[in-house]
Amino acid sequence: MNIAFLALKALTLKARAFENATGNPMDSQRRVLSEYLRRNKDTEYGRKYNFSDIKSISDYQKAVPLGDCESFHPYIERMRKRESGMLTADRPIFFGITSGTTNKPKFIPVTEYSRAKKAETMELWAYYIYRDHPAVLSGKILAIVNPEIEGTTESGVPYGAESGHGYRNLPAIVKHLYSLPYQVFNIKDYDARYYCILRIGMEHNITTLATLIPSTIVLLCEKIKIWEDKIIEDIKKGTLSRSFDIPEDIRAVLGKTFRPNPKRAGELENILKEKKELLPKYFWPNMQLIECWKGGTVRLYLKELPQYFGDIPVRDFGYLSTEARSSIPMSDAGAGGVLAITTNFYEFIPKEDVGNKEKRYLLCDQIEKGKEYFLIVTTPGGLYRYNIDDIITVDGFFNKTPMIEFVQKGLNATSVTGEKLYESQVNEAVNKAVEASKLLIEFFSASIEWGAPPRYIFLVELEGNPPHEKKKALLKYIEEGLCDQNAEYKDKRAQLVLGSPVLKVVKRGGFERYRARKVKEGGHDSQFKVPELTSDMDFQKNFDIEEEVHMD
Question: Which residues contact 404 (CB under 8 A, 6 or more apart)?
Fold first, then answer.
C-alpha cells in the first residue's frame, strides 16, 4: 500500500465533507463567522465592536467597519510587543510579512488555530492533486520557498515568509518526501541558493515541482546550462562547489546529505552527450505535475514551461496570500478554485462600486459568473472585514459555491512576480529621485515590460536636455526608492526574477498628445490623468521614445 493511496484515503472524508458544504455555502459561512466572533468576543477588538451582540451577518456588517492594513496596524503593533487579547484569544506564534501601500512591511499574525485552519484548506488542495496525479508521491517533491525567519519582534516572536514557516512545520510523515533541506532557503546569495536547488534536485527523482511564481522555474531552467559542468562534477564527487557564497554552517549541514554518486553523474553526462542539452524533461523523466500560480500576469510564463518540461500538466496553487488562503483548485484546467467557505468569511465589493460612496457588500451566494469583485475577508487569524485590495473574477460554480480566480492587485497596483507594487510607492520613489538628481520631470508613467526576466520601465518627459549621466542617476535613485518603499520589490530584484528598471525618455509633447487623443476619444478633459503606474504592457506604444537609459 503506497503513500499516495494512504494520503488519498486519509483526506477523502474531509474532501467529501467540503463538497457537501458547497451545496449550501451560506450555512458554512454563517458557522465560520459565528465561530470566529465567539472565539474572539473578549479581545480588545471584539469588545470595541460588541462581538457578543452580533447575531447575524447583517449585524456584523453594521457593527464592524471595513478594515485594511492601516486600521489593524495599532493592534498588530501591540501584539508584536506581546500584549495579549488584541485581535485573537490566542497568542501569535509567528508573523507573516508582506508588502503594503507604505514603505513598512505588513505583519500578519499567525496563531496555532489560524495555522491549523489554513492547513485544512491546504490538505483539500493536496487531496485533489493526489486524486488526479497519484504518482506525484512516487518520487521526491522539489518545493521552493522563502526563508521562514527574517527576524524576531521585541517580544521574541519570529517573523518572515509564511511559505518558509509552512515548510519548516511540515508533518513528519511527509517531510521526507521533500528533496531540499530547509537550510538551502537561508542562503542569502541567490545564485548560490539556485545552484544548491539544482545541484540537490538534479540528483533526485523529482515527480513534482512546486513554487508560487512560475518565473522562478524559468529562471532555474536558464541557469542549468551555465552550471551544468559544476553540477555533474559535484554529484559525481559528493561535493558542493566552492564557487558560490554559501555560509560554512549551511555547507556543513548540506554536506552531511551528500555522497559520491558517479552513477547519476554518468546519466546526466549521457543526456548531455545525446541531447546536447540538460533539460528537466530529460533528467526528470517521471515528472507528473508542476504546481504554481497560473492567473493574472504570471500566465505569460506558462508558455515557456513546455520547452523545458514537455507536456506536463500545471496545477494552480489557488488564491492565497499571507492574510488568507481563499480557494481550492480541483483540476489542472485554468486558474480558478472553489471558494474556501469553511476557512474564512467573505464579502465582495463589485469592481464598479469601488469609487462610489455607497458600496454593495455582497455574499458568496450573490456574486455572478464573469463579474469582477474586490475581496473582503474575515480570517481565523484576527482580520475582520479586511480589504486585501485584490480583484478576483468568478469563473463559475462548483455546486452552489463560486469558483474564483485572482485578476490583479487593486486598481492602483501591479504585480508580475509577486512584488505587489503600488502607485503611491512609485510616486514616492520618483519624487525623491527627482529631488536627489535635481532634474525636472514634466510627466512620468511606470509600466511593466515583458521579458526574461520582466522589468519595470519609466516613461519620462524631461525639461531641457540633461546629460546621459544625470538620467542614469535619476534611474538609480528611482530603483533605490522602490527598494526602500517595497520590501517584496527589493526581494524579487535580488532573486533575479525581476530585471533592472529602464528609463525611456519620451519625445517632447508626447504626454500632451496622448492626453489630447484620450480626451478626443471621450475622456473628461478636467479629470484626465496619465496613470503613474499601469499593468498595461502595451502602454508604452502610445509614445515615441527618443532614448533608453539602462542601469550598469
Answer: 319, 326, 327, 336, 337, 339, 375, 392, 393, 394, 395
